Amino acid sequence: MADSLEETLAKIRPHTSSNLPHQKAPATLLIALESTFAEQNTQRTPTAYFAALLTTLDSTLQAARSSTPDFGDGDVLPAELYILALVIPHVPHPVIRSHLSTILSLTAPLFPALVPHAPPLRSQLSLYEAVLRALDRSQLETHGLRQAFESILHLCLDPRPKVRKRAAELVKDVLAHPPPSLRHPYADRVAEWVQAALAEVTSGGLPKFKGKKAESEGSETAIHLLAFLRPVLPCLPSSSLPAITSSLLTLPRLGNPYVSQSAYSILADLLLIPVEDPVHNIQDRLPEILDAILASPPLRTDSSVTSAWAGVLGHGMIAYHEADAEAASKKLWEVWHAVWPFMESTDASVRKAVAQSLDSLTQCFTPSITASAIKEKQSNEGKSTLRKVIAQTTKALDSLAFARSTPEILLVVSSLLSHLRFRQDGQGSPTAAEELLLLSVKKIADLRLQKGFEYKESADATLSVAMGVLGPEVLLRELPLNLDVADRQAGREPRAFLLPMLSQPHPSPLSHFVSYFVPFTERMFDLQAKAEAEGRPSEAKVWSVLVDQVWSGLHGYCYGTPDLKEALTPQFSQLLSQLLYSQPNLRPAVLKALRLMVESNVAIASGDGERLAKLPEGARADPISQEAASANVAFLRTQCESWLAVLFNVFTSVGRDGQGMVGDVIRAWASIADEKAYHKLVNLLNQNVVKAQATSATKESESVTGMTLDLLILMSPYFSSSDATNLFNLCLASDILESRDNAVQKRGYKVLSKVVESGKVNVDAEDILQRLDKVTDGLTAAAKKDRFLLLTLLVARIPPTSLHLVPSIIPEAVLGTKEPSEKARNAAFDLIVTMGKKMAEGGVVKRNLVDGMDEDSAGEAKASIEEYMTMIAGGLAGATPHMISATITAISRLVFEFKDDISPQMHVEIFTTLLVFLTSANREIVKSTLGYVKLAIHTMPVELLRPHLKEIVPALLKWSHDHKNHFKAKVRHIFERLLRRFGWEDVYSCATEDSARKVLLNIKKRKDRAKRKRARAAENDEEDEEPTAKPAAGDAFEDVLYGSESELDDSDDEMPSGRQDRAGKRKDNGGARLRVDDDEPMDLLAGAASRITSANGKKRRKPGEDAARFKTDEDTGKMVIGDEQDEDENMEEDVAGRAYRESLTSADGFTRGPNGRVKFNKDTKKRRRENEDGEDVEMADAEASSGRKSKRKSDPKLGHEFKAKKAGGDVKKGGVDPYAYLPLSQAAKKKGRKERLGVAGKR
């Protein structure tokens, strides 16, 4: 029986003693069915359950023919339908098809009687979903089945949410999984029903405010219908889409906001559906659809409908543009003109939706529209659509009506820039954005410089888009940086905010960086050096940051630059090399530029879609031609040898943290190097290794060897066969694999693995394994992971006739499973599994060639997984507990991996053998054995484990009281799994001693207690929340061995407090206002955007306002800042507030939890002391206690921060002097808190 069905049924069986009839009836029925199976020796399969339930259902219906069937909570018929709905998804489809007539005759007549009863009706729907998905096309035409489907369709508008949702899911799933054909045969009927329902809704109209009943009968039906239509829409035939579209267009006229929003949203989805039938293509009706939508604009105050309306117009224009671009371009201005006024809305969500819609419209620009706009610009005319759009957008930047919409207008400008990359005269000519939008960009940059402009982030985003479309060469020509000293002296505003925008793909050539920014950075270097020499570190830091920002933008010029050959001159290359050597802070930027210089040109030259997809969108939007990229790659290939030499030197000079980036650049350049240069570099590296090993084994020589091996690893994918063979033999030498330096060993094994994996070397596995066995003595712990990886690759290449090599590797691999390093353990497990797969493939094991094999056992054995398990099991006779424990862990991994390939007899032998080790006195062995037992209970069939329950339970109970190594928790988890698989009675009966039984009873109680807590939590919470699943370890074996689904981890403490209220603060959508400046008159006709603020409109504090709160000494004129006690004397006692605080904090107080439960405060010393301090003290008591010293520290006085340790300082007994230490804004605050302020404003 399927495990998933068994898990489902296992949750039902315990409810035989439930007090709830709807839980008890299915459990009782299930137990009765399984008792019948046991009497008849019938296996519990889904088919057996299915047949038994049909028979039981038939008997129940025959007994109820004389009267109406009962569908109450405790009746048999709902229980039968419930279990049948759970079982039938697991029944094979041929079985369902053969019993279709029986299913229909029993269940179809129940639909009318089931309608008033929601729970059995949902079970009936689940049953029919499985039936409909199992049938072939011919059976779906059965008359009774079509009638049943008709009944299900009408339930999609049922007023009950759960029934309606279940019916809608059924229809969607059935249509989405048709029998082998393009479309489900029921799709036409669903489309007809939807059209009829929409027609009924639109013809009858929706009642408005005529009572609750009328509202629910009209609007709710339309809402339910639209909710059903959205997921089903892609499955309907294309011939029905025009009629559905017409009906949806009429819904907004009915005046219901939610219906209008849903209709527009569905229309937007409908327009994006690809239509395969050209005859019934909805694209032909797009002009009519757009006209209907434009004819019914929403009110500006209706935010929800406006957003959906604007969205459907945007989607409609995109669909129209794809169908007929020229016709759509003629409609563009009409739609733009209709949508644009909603940009003035006070609702931020509406403005955002309008901006998205306008962005969709900018995607509809055609080359003809763009070309006509450029021609009009040259003739100073403004009649074209694009010129009017740009003029309207630019004008809005200064308009007071659109002041609050400035961020959205900037988004529209960004959209215009992004979709005007068109070049009228091909590559090299200016873009349409440069011709048409340069004035708008300059205006945005001017706004960005104004101090009162609040939307600087939005302006930066738009200017960044302009940088990517226009390029620095064009943009900086119109917007100079003004960062030189002469510019500052002339009073020009600097535009340093443009520098971070350089680091993105743009069309400017690399020669612009060489001619413009290289001299610029040299001037900045000089200014930095001058400032450092004159002792101005802050100024020097400014120049240093500017230099960093410039060079960080170098890689933006390197995405397929058209003038690479002219720009990458020897002089510029020498400058880059010097920066790599001498400027560590600029090194990452230069390395990134060198890498992208190669990768982008290679991707464009190849024309490969996958490579091009890795490039940024800006690099793909306006790339150079494929021929130009190929020429760039050919030029770079001539520079490879010199650049790789430079990069090798840089690699050896930087630390370990910086080698990764240098290695990426080396890998990129090595991929395009020609064979001659590559062979020369590889030989040079090999000679370095030989020279380093020939010298005395010093740290310096070993460091050189490690660095050189790192470089060889980077270049290994591009080795020729001869180079790979030479390198393989070099690294297989004992000087490398037995080096005292961990790094040399690790890299030696890595090189061997890379070469073997590349397949460029003919590998003699037997010879290599023998040579590797000789260097085992010098192996360091750090190299074990890489050695295991190499052995894994070699095992896969062992021929079937040489499997006698496997036993020689087993001891090392088994012991590797106990390595401290997790990566080494995982590699050892992979090696063990790989050997198992190799043995499972078949072959011959020549026992006479196995080391240490007795002559009596010599011969040949057939390779199999069981033979391999026998080899592994030899470690159980090891001399050390460590070896025995490692062997048990290895066997556990193999049992998990090959559980289906191992015979039941072998399973039993392994289980009985390892079960003996539970009696061991060594904890390491027991720990591994507990892991195996947990795994076996999870994976082995029940029938194999049941005979051994009497051995398992006592052996586990022996460790149930042991807290060391978490044995008690591990045993409890194992018992929890046992209880789930075998039931309480079977497990409990195997416990003989009373103390052992108490352990099991305790586990059962804890489990039941956890269930009750979850049930109470579910009752208290209004919303159902799914339990949070424990994070998986990422490996199935680790999850089974160490993870647990135990419910016993639940704490016995009280449930955590209720959920916090997540109601956020209300957004102030109309928060934008004009900033008033008394010193400067405001021009409301221009520059309004710089006057807009969303800050709080509270009145500013004027100078001297805080000082007016304090008294003044008549003699000296100084302000007197009194202590809090002066004001406390005049304050009335807050009796009610004090009583409330005491009820929360005192020892006699209490609090209420989220469930309304009272929780009394604990009577702690702290609370008692606070109560004593707060009580009224009689005079006599006060005098009596005055002689005792208080252990509590007195509150610090004003100015205690400035008091010297050995002198009086400025704080004197009479008061504070001087008085200027206390900030007036702090001292002027109301005194109501217990904390005291120091004169520095500290608490």
TrEMBL record:
Domain RRP12 N-terminal HEAT residue range list: 16-272
Principal place of residence: nucleus
One Pfam family, short name: RRP12_HEAT
RRP12 HEAT domain location: 345-653
Region feature Disordered, mapped onto this chain: 1010-1243
InterPro entries the record matches: ARM-like, ARM-type_fold, HEAT_RRP12, HEAT_RRP12_N, RRP12
Biased composition (Acidic residues): 1046-1055, 1123-1134, 1172-1181
Keyword tags: Nucleus
Keyword Nucleus annotated: yes
Source species, domain of life: Eukaryota
Subcellular location: Nucleus
PANTHER family with a match to the protein in the record: ARM REPEAT SUPERFAMILY PROTEIN
Family assignment from sequence similarity: Belongs to the RRP12 family.
Official protein name in the record: Ribosomal RNA-processing protein 12
Organism annotation: Somion occarium
